[in-house]
């Protein structure tokens, strides 16, 4: 087995562990068999997993930005909390972008991505979809467990309500988009269905798609990014893309050859692909500016 094959098989194992069965003991047993030793398996797992201590691309205290925690109502008995960032010297109302986290909740990496979005000239808000359960914990395994236990329908409605709230934000121009990664990519798709015309644009990164029958409810322009080797997610991609086109939704889709699920996450040494991430990011920012400006 080549190093390339080992890497691909290890990442596939990790993907199943984090998205399907969540059995760490079984995952490490399989990875040990694959890698040849427990030490090699642990080293490989650490390189694949996101590193919560990785340095931010945009520092939390960047003077070009105004940042802070936020809270808002999504229903009579539901409150969401999250992180907000916008350019410090904005000259007028800005288009707003919802930044939707992975299945580890609202962590420092997603806060960093939110700041990156804000530096591009947007009012960026990252909701913590674990707010109803007390918020994202520091333990990523616990966060994944809590994500799996969420009432998905209620979470989607929280997202759609957040879109409507952002449309009325005084710092915004009344136009709202969404970008999401992994679990957040799936949520961006679902919010596009639920929010209807309130959402102007959505950019799901490697997000499993909803039932294609839901495509007719989407009114936002869609930009879809997929990892070339991501068989689990890509199995849902083509039917969703075709259904969106058939429904008359403006849609662009890209498959990045040779990349793995989570290729945009620069805190994961084994899965991050800088060339693909940079290209997808450039396409994302251009798309959001065209649709929301």
From TrEMBL:
Domain of life: Bacteria
GO molecular function: carboxymethylenebutenolidase activity
EC number: 3.1.1.45
UniProt keyword terms in alphabetical order: Hydrolase
Domain Dienelactone hydrolase: 80-290
Record-linked Pfam families: DLH
Enzyme class: hydrolase
InterPro entries: AB_hydrolase_fold (IPR029058), Dienelactn_hydro (IPR002925), Dienelactone_hydrolase-like (IPR051049), TAT_signal (IPR006311)
Protein name according to UniProt: Carboxymethylenebutenolidase
């Amino acid at each position: 087995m080549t190093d390339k094959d080992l890497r691909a098989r290890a990442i596939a194992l990790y993907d199943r562990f984090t998205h399907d069965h969540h059995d760490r003991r079984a995952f490490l047993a399989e990875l040990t068999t694959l890698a040849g030793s427990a030490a090699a398996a642990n080293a490989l797992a650490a390189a694949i997993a996101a590193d919560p201590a990785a340095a931010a691309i945009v520092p939390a205290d960047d003077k070009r930005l105004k940042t802070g925690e936020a809270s808002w109502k999504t229903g009579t008995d539901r409150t969401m909390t999250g992180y907000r960032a916008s350019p410090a010297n904005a000259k007028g109302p800005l288009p707003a972008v919802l930044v939707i986290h992975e299945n580890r909740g609202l962590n420092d990496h997603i806060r960093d991505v939110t700041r990156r979005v804000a530096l591009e000239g947007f009012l960026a808000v990252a909701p913590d979809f674990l707010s109803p359960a007390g918020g994202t914990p520091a333990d990523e395994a616990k966060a994944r467990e809590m994500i799996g236990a969420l009432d998905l329908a209620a979470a989607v409605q929280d997202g759609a309500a957040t879109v409507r709230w952002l449309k009325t934000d005084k710092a915004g121009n009344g136009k709202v988009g969404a970008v999401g990664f992994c679990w957040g990519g799936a949520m961006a798709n679902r919010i596009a269905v639920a929010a209807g015309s309130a959402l102007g644009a959505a950019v799901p990164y490697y997000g499993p798609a909803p039932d294609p029958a839901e495509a007719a409810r989407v009114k936002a322009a869609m930009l879809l990014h997929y990892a070339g080797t991501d068989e689990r997610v890509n199995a849902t991609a083509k039917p969703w893309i075709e259904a969106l086109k058939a429904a008359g939704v403006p849609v662009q889709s890209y498959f990045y050859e040779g990349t793995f699920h989570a290729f945009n996450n620069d805190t994961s040494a084994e899965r991050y692909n800088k060339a693909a991430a940079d290209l997808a990011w450039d396409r994302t920012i251009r798309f959001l500016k065209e649709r929301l400006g």
